[in-house]
Design a protein that fits this description.
19% strand; six-stranded antiparallel β-sheet; 221 residues; Arc Repressor Mutant, subunit A
Length: 221
């Protein structure tokens, strides 16, 4: 079982999960976000992924988490996103042990996560919010850089700090998210490739397999 809602902070989603009887696996697609996760009494950070990860949870395992979009995660966690790329890091490696212990032992983990995030939250750079919005909308990287008044090199450096990777990779990942969303709504794959911004259906198939590890049909079953 999985559920999510908007958190009290901008650009942040609060989500929960409960593994079914017998346990279960989940394919987690890259999304340009960082997650702060409480899982059965341990707390860790899931950094930005460049490819999908398959996660297994035993029966009854519980998670409560915050997903930080638009470059909001590094300000809360106190570490650049590219240092967490494709990694899961115990929170005690980043924060004081006493603070992590209070989170781990909280009777209401979600409330505790939101409270600590609110204390540490810093408004993200407006340019990075614009970059995230532009990537989700499928705008060319050059157009995003121009609209932010940034050189390509400066934009690349800021994006690595905020998202873990440069704007071209972020755009590929956001395009994947658009494609999967369309396919899950029943849009034919040929139309998905056009609307999501791929050159053709073959291009869609290659990109989905490269980033997700399975064909598009395997993501919508």
């Amino acid at each position: 079982m999985y559920s999510e809602r908007a958190a009290a902070l901008p650009q942040v989603v609060a989500w929960r999960s409960l593994a079914p009887p017998g346990g279960g696996s989940t394919r987690i697609l890259p999304d340009g976000c960082l997650d702060l996760i409480w899982s059965d009494g341990s707390v860790f950070v899931a950094g930005p992924d460049t490819v999908a990860e398959v996660s297994w949870a035993p029966a009854g395992s519980r998670c409560a988490a915050l997903r930080f979009a638009a470059g909001t995660g590094p300000g809360v966690l106190g570490v650049p996103a590219d240092e967490l790329l494709d990694r899961q890091v115990p929170l005690e490696d980043l924060w004081p042990a006493a603070e992590v212990r209070r989170l781990a032992e909280a009777s209401d983990p979600m409330a505790a996560l939101e409270a600590v995030a609110m204390r540490r939250f810093q408004e993200p750079e407006r340019a990075m919010v614009a970059v995230a919005e532009g990537a989700r909308a499928g705008r060319p990287v050059s157009a995003i850089a121009d609209s932010c008044g940034l050189s390509p090199r400066h934009l690349h450096r800021l994006c690595k700090t905020a998202f873990g990777y440069g704007p071209k990779t972020l755009s590929r990942i956001m395009r994947l998210q658009r494609a999967v969303g369309l396919a899950r709504r029943g849009v034919p794959f040929a139309e998905v490739s056009f609307v999501a911004g791929y050159a053709d259906q073959a291009h869609l198939s290659r990109e989905v397999k490269a980033l997700a590890g399975v064909p598009l049909s395997g993501l919508i079953q």
